[in-house]
Write a structure and sequence with these properties.
heterodimer; A: 329 residues; two-stranded antiparallel sheet; 4% strand; B: mainly alpha; 1 helix
């Protein structure tokens, strides 16, 4: 039986995968899109469709996140506006590069290779961060250097930081190119850029990040949808799961220490990198077992990490209730 | 798919983005109501185990 061109089993698979991704997004505040696009690549969707659907999914997920941050006052609208301008230009450049590569018949290979490198790089960064107790402040020198670039006009941001408008736009364009090229929201790049690069307070960086991802995700999805490269049933199924997962993940943040899970998260990113490489090699040399391995790695790693979060949250709840009864009664 | 492929490019694209937006709003509201009702029961069950 099929629904909107997808089999019920496939829909169930996407809803389940969305749930896992939602838990990860809700808990870590990032990690949605750069798992979805590789997963769609691994499942055999063309690169253009994988990227376009990934961006549409990012848009939907960040709308839900932005609604939560809206009332908390955790948004610097001036910074978000500038970032959106920069990212819009960048997305246009990145998406044109994908369409050009698609016309040359090279898009699948190039996007996959870029993903292998990006996932490996971010995975190693998170792994290093997880192994060092104090990962903050490493880029404070960079923030200082960036703030000293006073090329007019300048803009005053939340936290009393004043930076050149051109610096903010340049960061936006750079992240936008990656976003348009790979179908990622850019949160895992923008967060450190705003926090360490611009010196914006962490809470404002998160809220601003999610708002601008909503806007740039909408634009990116629009660009790809014009090419017929957004699979609405796939995105809808993923959102059905991720909206619930995001609530579970967000709830778990009150119970579980993020540092306890970071190592798993890094392993998941590295597994994603190996999965995309495995898929490419399997396809190039017609080795079926490598293609199967790539599917198992993407879904298995997501299941492992989101499962670890849920188990840790349940454990924390039980420990809390074990400590309470004597005083409560 | 979903009857959108017969509409010209930009209109189809806007309809696609709009569809995702509407679904996100509905899911936010729907799951919000569901989790508000179910969470206390789930937490209580876990704590009692």
């Amino acid at each position: 039986m099929e629904l909107f061109g997808l089999g019920l089993l496939t829909i169930g698979l996407f809803v389940g995968f969305g749930l896992l991704i939602g838990i990860l997004f809700g808990f870590f505040g990032m990690g949605g899109s750069f798992l979805v696009t590789p997963a769609l690549l691994v499942l055999g969707y063309p690169a253009k469709v994988a990227v376009g659907s990934g961006l549409a999914f990012v848009f939907g997920t960040s709308v839900i996140g932005a609604l939560r941050h809206r009332d908390l006052g955790q948004v610097d609208y001036r910074l978000a506006g500038l970032m959106v301008v920069g990212m819009t230009i960048g997305i246009e450049v990145g998406s044109r590069a994908v369409f050009l590569l698609q016309a040359m018949g090279q898009a699948d290979f190039v996007v996959s290779v870029a993903y292998v490198g990006l996932l490996a790089a971010v995975g190693l960064f998170v792994l290093r961060d997880a192994r060092t107790a104090d990962g903050d402040g490493t880029a404070s020198g960079l923030a200082g250097w960036i703030r000293e670039r006073r090329l007019p006009p300048t803009v005053r941001l939340a936290g009393g930081v004043t930076v050149s408008v051109w610096v903010v736009l340049a960061i936006g364009v750079a992240v936008g190119v990656l976003s348009g090229f790979l179908g990622v929201g850019g949160g895992f790049l923008l967060m450190p850029a705003m926090l360490y690069g611009l010196g914006v307070p962490a809470a404002v960086a998160v809220g601003t990040d999610i708002l601008q991802i909503t806007l740039s995700g909408a634009y990116g999805a629009f660009v790809y949808a014009q090419q017929g490269a957004v699979e609405v049933p796939v995105v809808a199924s993923l959102l059905l799961g991720s909206a619930l997962g995001a609530r579970i993940g967000a709830g778990a943040t009150h119970l579980v220490d993020e540092d306890d899970i970071k190592g798993y998260f890094a392993a998941m990113l590295l597994a994603g990198s190996v999965a995309v490489a495995s898929k490419e090699l399997g396809g190039a040399y017609d080795i079926e077992v490598l293609s199967t391995l790539s599917v198992a790695l993407v879904f298995g790693a997501s299941l492992l990490v989101s499962g670890a979060i849920v188990v840790a949250a349940v454990g924390a709840l039980r420990r809390a209730s074990d400590e309470e009864p004597t005083t409560a009664r | 798919m979903l009857g959108l492929e017969t509409v010209p490019g930009p209109v189809e694209a806007a309809a696609t983005v709009g569809l995702v937006l509407v679904e996100s709003f509905l899911l936010y509201l729907g799951y919000g109501a569901v989790t508000a009702a179910v969470t206390p029961v789930v937490v209580e069950t876990i704590e009692e185990d």
